[in-house]
């Protein structure tokens, strides 16, 4: 079923916790999930509402056999679904699994059909509620038209839907217990009166089973099970979803099936055995009531009547909310009008979707009711039938998706990966086909329009396919994220002694954050390596004392502490939302101490040359003149060490100062000067703000229109809000259109002298700064276009305007360089090496680069996931397992890592990747090669002082000196 607020399925790692959501996460046991699922199936409504029509229009007294067949098919469906759930996270929507197995168009078609199904069931429940409630009142001598009760129910259900409030689980449980108790009492009384005649053997005879319309009987049987699939909704609320949800599904299906089979069998026996269909035709919805009165008297009749009404109402509320959430999901996924994807600012409910469901319910039931249609025999039969057909088709597609998902996988099991999904697909598909071809029998009418309902389902599926294809053409990024999934977290279950005894030694160059991440992985796996860093300590660019560091005093992270940090070492809570360089430097060094990394690095030693040798080996020359040979080279160079200093026309005549921003340290340097900052990247706008505060006059030269992203929205860090780490305050509704959201937050930039943005918000690196807008609005900073040329005392801009300046700061970015490597060893494009997945050399099998990538996200966790790819290859080199497959991928695989986004045509964006697309592809490769995922506990054994058998060296080669690993 759809979720209230779809998460960033592919974005947030499964084990990255939400921070400060303000709500305690409930944890459900398997028993609790079973309890909720059986309550959702509404057993009283199923027996009293479905059984009479099934007896009349299905295969007669073989209804118990139909229940058994339906249960067998659904158990197979559950087996396949559960097997896939152990590998793929599903927050409750079947269409997500279908998209994973059969493709996004098929997934969208499934979502459309599911929305139609739950909408139809909700409409049908409106008619059923009015019909049965009017019967109850009629038995009490009060004759009220059924439409009055339906209208009252619409008001109640709409109120629940507007607030997205499901009936209290405790209250549902209480009602469910009473429903079971009343029906069990009826069963016992019938058996007491009839003896063995309460169980007519003819119910299971072949003649009876195939004598009527088995397709219609199966449809009613499947209708009675609708609700069991809601177990998927609670998956991520259990301690162990991969274990709890399969158990809950099996227990629920078996329990419901046993109850339905026995109760339906006894009802048939109590109604006269083979004469039961005729009695059902006479009594219809009163059948269970008359049996209750016949065998249990007025008291049992009254209890049955009241509980049937409450059961139908509770089921109606649940189905209404399910339909609303599916409509919300379609709007959120941008394959339906976006308005459907808006949630209520206070109740956090899909209130627009709920209003649509209510409107359709009133329109359909009202129109058919005014036309004189019987609420039970016509409206409920036709509309609930359409709903059940839709849900059965959704389940059939899901079973097929499971079968395709497991095709060719090494972890496929014969029953759950082959037999069960095949049986589920064939069984559900056959049930759909039989019910569709006998639909006129179900409705009891020859009205062509009513009996074309199965065609409407097919048309709805085709509409879903077209919506997905339209989204792919018009919004490729949204299409990439459509129905996104993530693999279920796979921890490393190997004991240290089960890992290979690595003999190949590697050279790691650089001890910035990416180098520290790489070293930690090598240490954990037990891979021998030597590690060199030219600076005297950890910290990388975040220590301004390091030679070539671009750090300046006002520099802060552009990602918040909630999304930043290493796995296993979250940023401390006492840090500000966006830490400054001092906090980041100290945090990085503390990370080195936590994992005992200081002991394994050789500081003050630079790699001056690295040359490939025969046999995929490397000759490495150090700054002390020594030469070493290694089996592989891991380069962790960082991307902001080598300034890109552009040439400005007329620079030779300019009498002022021109310098790159790498030399800037403090805004006090600008006092008494007229300053021009060229470039509006994150560093450029920071430095422009410093100039606005300290310089006599400050200008900012920009070539194009940029989009500026505020660091906070309603007081909440923007990245934490958009990634789901933190919840928005009540009353705040965020648009799913990022361009519209930013336009709303920052307004018209042309008022401040800036060009209008010339690109979508997601097609360039984010500028996380709105302070610059403050200074522009107050006149402390003046925006100017691109520089045309310099004069002796100033600058002429592209629009012909001029300014007198004393100093020009070039915030024009940095070049990708690896000075110790011959550039000819790699293919380069716009100054960027062309690496497979931005990690692997396509030409040299033992060369790895970690950190040469750009994306709109905090870097450290993404570097960790990239490091896992290197570990997969190192492991394959050592063991030989699937090494040829990996090598072939390096040579030939060219995935679209941009998710269809057309990034700006600039050198910086040459290797830019779309973050969720990139993460999903890396996760796919880990899953493909059976490699574990990383979480906050993966590296616990490496913590300083922790007992560990891990060693970074092989048994055959102990460390030669303390500074080597």
TrEMBL record:
Q: Where is this region: Disordered?
A: 1-24
Bilayer topology reads: Multi-pass membrane protein
TM region(s), chain numbering: 33-55, 61-81, 109-132, 144-160, 172-192, 204-228, 249-275, 295-319, 352-373, 379-406, 418-436, 448-469
- Which Pfam families does the record cross-reference, listed alphabetically? AA_permease_2, FMO-like
Q: Does the keyword Transferase apply?
A: no
Q: Which domain of life is it from?
A: Bacteria
**Cellular component terms (Gene Ontology):** membrane
Primary subcellular site in the record, as a coarse category:
membrane
Regions of biased composition (Basic and acidic residues) lie at: 1-18
| Xref: InterPro entries | AA/rel_permease1 (IPR002293), FAD/NAD-bd_sf (IPR036188), Flavin_mOase (IPR000960), Flavin_mOase-like (IPR020946), FMO-like (IPR050346)
Q: Which GO terms describe its molecular function?
A: flavin adenine dinucleotide binding; N,N-dimethylaniline monooxygenase activity; NADP binding; transmembrane transporter activity
Establish whether keyword Membrane is in the entry: yes
Q: Keywords assigned by UniProt? A: FAD, Flavoprotein, Membrane, NADP, Oxidoreductase, Transmembrane, Transmembrane helix
Q: Where is it located?
A: Membrane
Q: PANTHER family of this UniProt entry?
A: DIMETHYLANILINE MONOOXYGENASE
Family per record: Belongs to the FAD-binding monooxygenase family.
What name does this protein carry? Amino acid permease
To which species is this protein native?
Streptomyces sp. R39
